[in-house]
Write a structure and sequence with these properties.
Belongs to the LDH2/MDH2 oxidoreductase family. GO terms for molecular function: oxidoreductase activity. InterPro entries: Mal/L-sulf/L-lact_DH-like_NADP (IPR043143), Mal/L-sulfo/L-lacto_DH-like_sf (IPR036111), Malate/L-lactate_DH-like (IPR003767). Keywords: Oxidoreductase. This is Malate dehydrogenase. The structure is a single chain. With 89 residues, the chain is mainly α. It has two domains: 16-45, no CATH class; 47-89, no CATH class. Helices cover 46% and strands 0% of the residues. It has three helices and no strands. The chain has helices spanning 19-32, 47-59, 66-79. The longest helix is centred in the first third of the chain and has 14 residues, at 19-32.
Length: 89
């Protein structure tokens, strides 16, 4: 299988004057929208990732499901390598 990738970085400020200010205003407007369900706030791109990063910081690591942890340790056992150690509490 052949796989190709191309990454292009574009600075929108080069094409649209005031882009940063307009984007900041749009983000503010999105955040000010009253959600239909208070338990599900309006999110913008990056919000879920920031929330997960905050959780990882609070926990002192990345939370894994028990199934993922068990599968990883089953593979480690088959390969004869040290299994994962869980941080609890």
């Amino acid at each position: 299988m052949i796989q190709g990738q191309c990454f292009i970085a574009i600075d929108p400020g080069n094409f649209a004057d005031g882009f940063t200010d307009r984007l900041t205003e749009l983000i503010g407007q999105c955040r000010d929208v009253e959600p239909l369900n208070p338990d599900n706030p309006v999110l913008i791109p990056g919000d879920p990732e920031r929330g997960h990063a905050k959780l990882c910081t609070e926990l002192g690591g990345i939370p894994y499901s028990q199934e993922t942890f068990t599968n990883a340790n089953d593979i480690a056992k088959r390969l004869g390598v040290e299994p994962l150690k869980a941080k609890t509490g």
